[in-house]
Input
Amino acid sequence: MCVTCGCSDDNNTTITNMENQHSHTHTLPDGTVITHSHDHHHHESPANVHAKIHNTTISLEQEILGKNNLLAAQNRGWFKGRNILALNLMSSPGAGKTTLLTRTINDLKEKLNISVIEGDQETTNDAERIKSTGCKVVQINTGTGCHLDASMIEKGLQELNPPLNSVVMIENVGNLVCPALFDLGEQAKVVILSVTEGEDKPIKYPHIFRASDIMIITKIDLLPYLQFDVEKCIEYAKQVNPKIQIFQVSATTGVGLDEWYGFLSCQSAITV
Output
């Protein structure tokens, strides 16, 4: 069991290139299952290193995160060398990541070249939704793993092969704890919080909000039917992270999306 977050060491990561669904699958020595038509060299997942008998929990955690950070730095250099804006989208399950992502892709497909790495424990359901937009997408299934790590992103990028001067959205596994611990090489972490979850999430799960550059409050069209204090939520988020940038959006009605799109266009212009 991983001492950093408690996810199982024997999970079998599966990477599916949605462009090659009719191709064969094969299992690598590290347990990763690849669905595609050719082989790649892969590294051992740094979050799945087995505990050695004389290692302490602290030293093993440092080893795991240290290896992950080295790979994350390589990913970051890979993105930079290709002028790619990479964002790591994190939230609890059901916060609306995929709905916001598909709306964003559909609305901006004429302006930005967006591709997606989709993370879930099982199924390709969300990847199918994203694929329906015409976007390039690779699905990473983590099995019993509760987060993506830099090694998974490295493998996913080999399959995705995003074009130069583009945007890569990484939709992490739904979880407000572990994804914050693992640098993927992204330019910014984006935490998504829906109004159905409660305004106290930033102080109940402070690390992910402290680690994030952006907070998006979603489903604001439901506010008339809920007792969610937006101002208190923002206050809590600023208490944890005074520099966090906040957007309030509804992917259903489109309210607030112009500000979010403006941010993406500005960041892409700077990066690209």
